[in-house]
## 1
Amino acid sequence: MDELTAPEGFLLRPWLPADASAVLRAFDPAEMDRQSDRPVADRAGALAWIAARTRERGARTGYSWAVVGEEGEAIGCVAVRAVNRAHGTGWVSYWTTEAARGRGVAPAGVRAVARWAFGELGLYRLELGHRTDNPASCRVAVRAGFAPEGIERGKLRYGDVRYDVERHARLADDDVNFD
């Protein structure tokens, strides 16, 4: 469970304190503030973010992986969180660094985590959502085999602005032609 390998060659491994610099760089763009429930603006914030991922893994409520590039540095994150074993469900999230965007990192990582969640965790349904004004995230979801299910109006609020979210899901028995 500690490491996964995507067929595309990306290594996924648990987050380590040594990744703090990479996390800090990843959270530098303003839009990344939305990917964390607390600020990641300095080394202490990056270490706290990593520690939270480690706690979730220990509690078996969430599993986050660093997607590692050729140089061994974390270039993205994929996770299945909000794991509900009674219902066999989980919530998938992902992000990549600016330098990694457009290289297939996120869809490869999401597909690898979905295979793991369906196999190792025995989950049946994985869900994810993206703001409707984020077509790149929608492309990741579709490329990873997640079917669109509908729009959740006004679901997210950032500052004074509310955003609609498109929900996607993938079931363990979906035929997605790349597993």
Note: The beta strands are 4-5, 11-13, 63-68, 74-84, 89-96, 125-131, 147-158, 161-171.
## 2
Amino acid sequence: MKKVLILGVNGFIGHHLSKRILETTDWHVYGMDMNTDRITELLEDDNYKSRMHFFEGDITINKEWVEYHVKKCDVILPLVAIATPSTYVKQPLRVFELDFEANLPIVRSAAKYGKHLVFPSTSEVYGMCHDEEFDPENSELICGPINKPRWIYSNAKQLMDRVIWGYGMEGLNFTLFRPFNWIGAGLDSIHTPKEGSSRVVTQFFGHIVRGENISLVDGGAQKRAFTYIDDGIDALIRIIANKNGIASGKIYNIGNPTNNYSIRDLAGMMLTLAAEYPEYAEGAKHVKIVETTSGAYYGAGYQDVQNRVPKITNTCEELGWAPTTTMADSLRNIFDAYRSQVAQAKALMD
């Protein structure tokens, strides 16, 4: 019976992971977050109250609570991070302060108390790598010039990976996982109208619901390998279980190479699918696809990656895992999940 500490338990990965743990294992979840909107049903479920332990707090303030629970729990997942490109460009110091500085004491506590640290790296660490598939053991990590603050997220995460690896050389039990564009319900709020404030699938979805135009940055030719959240959580559960210590000291890409589509393709797929739903069809009729520049959309410090495909050989072989959800099914699941929220999203236009 493991005790799993999830910092950022109300976030996209945090709430999906908590739900899966409570539904399929006898593990206890100890969670901290500043909000509870995504985990309300878990907190109110009588079946889970004995195993779902929640504290409303902030990792930058409630440091004693965090250290106490690192000491108390078996597996530590520090999932608190800023992961929206517009913030990298507009507030790079905020990204560094939270994603690196605020997480460093948690990493040190995990080392101090001999815990299994499962840390979210990112596909962004590979930057503008030229490889057809990004290999966690061999690919070069290539970032742009200093005057492109977009790379501070990649650099902060890469530096943390290197620090954790260094602690591993001194005995820390760690696993680094790199999510490749995980998508699903609860990724960001569809009620946020401001462009660049959420990630691409949620952004497009909100525009479709409200009948707003979809902006393709620099033509939308850049590709991403999209991964459905349930597939990602499958891999994470195996890492936390860490059967026979297989995941210790490893770096895993968690992504779906077969779901590699351009952003333009994504917009087209979502509009086609929206037409099949009575709740979304009317809004979708008003949507036009327009083009914009990255400078106009994100700000002058943006630079993009044209292709980002994960090599998942070691993830599949060592964890006995494989992604199974197609792009079509991933999008349909998202459209199904938000059917009851259309009115609230539309109200943003009033």
Note: DSSP finds 15 helices and 13 strands in the chain.
## 3
Amino acid sequence: MMRAQLFRAMLLTLLAWAAVPPAFAQPVPLQDKPFAEHRIVLQLSDGDARKQALVLSVANNLLKAYDPDKIAIEVVAFGPGVDLLLSGSERRKQVESLIAQGVRFDICLNTVDTIERETGKRPEFIPAATPVQVGVGQILFLAENGYTVVRP
């Protein structure tokens, strides 16, 4: 009888532990670009339309300067920068064009969650954007894996 109670207690503890989200969010895996000679992460934490246009311009210019197979470009948007990746963004077509050319756009889910808490509505973002739990964590992960961080 004591064994069954101990087993149930252990099982309940295990289930409770499994339901708790991990303290450290896992970053999104690196892009599959085996021939990339250059790896760039563009940080976008600004809601200013001119800065967002600049990030898109830098990504576009890098694609022109290097063969798209020879460069890995990742744009990580967090804070006000996520506005670029919302479904209603006026620059959506530019973003989707860059995605079609191999640029990855990451959107910070912590920021999306904050917007939802503040407005009561979860914002819709471009489906082709890659959700990451922690935008700055993704930048750190990329930097630790050979990416050069650029903040235009």
Note: The first helix runs from residue 2 to 19.
## 4
Amino acid sequence: MSGPGISVVICAYTEDRWEDILAAVSSVHAQSRPALETLLVVDHNETLRERLAKEYKDSSEGSVVRVLANAGPRGLSAGRNTGIAAARGEIVAFLDDDAVAERDWLRHFAEAYADERVMAVGGRTVPVWASGRRPDWFPEEFDWVVGCTYRGLPRGRVRVRNVLGGNASFRRSAFDAAGGFATGIGRDGDKRPLGCEETELCIRLSRARPDAVLLIDDRAVIHHRVPEIREHFRYFRTRTYAEGLSKALVARSVGAEKGLESERRYATRVLPAGVARGLRDALLARPGGAGRAGAIVAGVLTAAGGYVVGSVRARRGGTTFRVPAVGVAARE
């Protein structure tokens, strides 16, 4: 196998996703470009950690699976940092525990790293709806609500401000330069679904390494399961509000100009076009047109409300986060 070794990190927290976790690991083992190792990081659930350790205790040299306990505070960011610190590969890739990767996922990542300036590569995440189909009212522009690639992102292999964490990879030296994922900003099991930790990391990385190139290659595809509860408007509203809270934290960390750079284009171009398509479909009596237009407007308003609340909390010092060292300095 030529090219850089790739460690794949999968963070898990609940036995409810047992079959999904096994499927995620199997999809890594089926890659056309083999991973150096798969790291399963379990978030403060000893029962799950022991069960996974037993499941993969006989993993062969060609499909090494290591099961680790999250060494930091509860949450996805600390779990990822645990995986980064333990990884042996030159590249560290991240896969959600309820997703499966297509066969050439790692091959497309590896090809992009032939350019030494490339510090991060993300891919395309396709939703797999529990009901079997997208809800009529659910706008593609808001697929990020369910952790998937949304309408408005550029196509092909292109430079971006940030990659999306559930389908992403980083060069190890990126963490040496910028530190790890900030704790206190991202997800914590089933609590309010905050996010944006990968956005904050990527902006921080670009500041630490101004020559860094960050890419999305939409040929690096994973399929992400969307449970039935996330197909409802209640979750949509909760998630968009939480995104506003998270964006306020990112803006506090890196400044509003950089922290909201991509969001301005999204809000002024992508979303108005989505509303127009929804209204057009409504006039043509196509299913869900009015609902999609309304959902876009509601999503903008709830995200804006979350941003205002998050900004007030940040100014009052009510919400904090920490950037841990996970690179060379942390290992010495």
Note: The longest helix spans residues 289-315.
